[in-house]
Design a protein that fits this description.
This protein has about 325 residues and is mainly β. The chain is built from no helices and 20 strands. The protein has a domain at about 150-329: TonB-dependent receptor, beta-barrel domain (Maltoporin, Chain A), CATH 2.40.170.20. The protein has a 14-stranded antiparallel β-sheet with strand order 1-2-3-4-5-6-7-10-11-12-13-16-17-20, with no helix packed on it. A two-stranded antiparallel ribbon has the order 8-9. It is globular and about 70 Å long. The model has no long low-confidence stretch (mean pLDDT about 90).
Length: about 325
């Protein structure tokens, strides 16, 4: 059991300037950037108080049958003072979120499980009119099987459905504000394999298929795919560490990551292309010391990770090399 208490408060500040438009498909930037500091405008003042109380218990019904039961109470108070319109809004929300899970082992190496859970997430934003939003709520159903392929290697196969309501997104007509999109549903299958194939050779492999779309809405077409969600993703991370001899403790790592095409916005007006990224690592361990070189995006692949509205697209990091030295005690 536990309790969480949090307060977040502060002003939102932005600086504004009028600049000529820029065509991103034929960018010729002849605009003059102001050199004087832009005037800071205090947009609003906000305060959010949250209280969460949760309790969970795992019960052994039989030697091969376990039940997980839990719940969480959330209480949220939020208040906004809009300095631009000289208005104030406040909102109070509370909810109970249950969680139930069951695990059955017909034989020791095989575990079958099923679970149900609900979620409650406050929407900390305002609309163009200055009003707040009801919290986002969700339900999740999941079934799966976990198999111990050996003493050191296991695999998990899971199928799930997640339904969310009152999901917050950027207002396409004014990116300074937000809107809610109605109902979204995600269905998928995930396969994970993790463990040690041979002594010193470890592996983590995963594949996921996700069908995520809008199921109810009064603005976007029903059936539109959710933005930034690829239907197919896969990853493989493997390391090998020399176990004996003068090079004992020397290790090598290789990571392969694939992300399929993704819609860039809820209107499905553009697509972020798929990408394949390669990472690598070289490390040396001795006693409680470790020195490592980690390389992300080894071949300097140009790719895009996520997008907000059509005008906000985040590229992936280029070739990045990170060296570390650590000690454990």
């Amino acid at each position: 059991m536990g309790i969480e208490l949090n307060r977040t408060e502060g002003p939102e500040i932005y600086r504004d300037a009028i600049l000529p438009p820029l065509d991103i498909f034929s960018p010729v930037n002849n605009s003059v950037i102001p050199t004087d500091p832009l005037e800071a405008i205090f947009k609003d003042q906000y305060r959010i108080d949250t209280l969460g109380i949760y309790l969970q218990d795992q019960i052994t019904l039989l030697d091969n049958l376990k039940l997980l039961v839990g719940g969480r109470f959330d209480f949220i108070e939020q208040k906004y003072d809009d300095f631009l319109t000289s208005t104030s809004t406040s909102q109070s929300d509370q909810a109970f979120s249950p969680r139930v899970g069951l695990v059955y082992q017909p034989i020791p190496p095989i575990s079958l499980y099923a679970s149900y859970s609900s979620s409650f997430v406050p929407n900390f934003a305002t609309s163009v009119s200055g009003s707040t939003f009801d919290p986002a709520q969700g339900t999740q159903y999941e079934v799966g099987v976990k198999a111990d392929l050996s003493d050191r290697l296991s695999a998990t196969l899971a199928a799930y459905q997640i339904t969310k309501t009152n999901v917050l997104t950027t207002d396409p007509n004014n990116s300074d504000f937000s809107i809610v999109t109605g109902e979204q549903r995600s269905r998928g299958v995930e396969l994970d394999v993790a463990g040690e194939i041979l002594t010193g050779w470890k592996i983590i492999a995963a594949y996921a298929y996700t069908d995520a779309q809008i199921t109810k809405d009064n603005q976007f077409p029903v059936g539109n795919l959710l933005n930034n969600v690829a239907k197919n993703t896969a990853s493989l991370w493997t390391t090998y560490e020399i176990q004996r001899g003068s090079l004992q403790g020397l290790g090598f790592g290789l990571g392969l990551y694939y992300v399929g095409d993704r819609q860039g916005d809820l209107e499905n007006s553009f697509v972020l292309p798929s990408y394949f990224r390669t990472d690598a690592a070289l490390y040396y361990k001795r006693n409680n010391w470790k020195a490592a070189i980690n390389i992300k995006n080894l071949f300097d692949e140009k790719y895009y990770e996520t997008s907000g509205p059509r005008t906000v697209i985040y590229p992936g990091a280029p070739l990045t090399v990170l060296g570390t030295i650590s000690v454990e005690f």
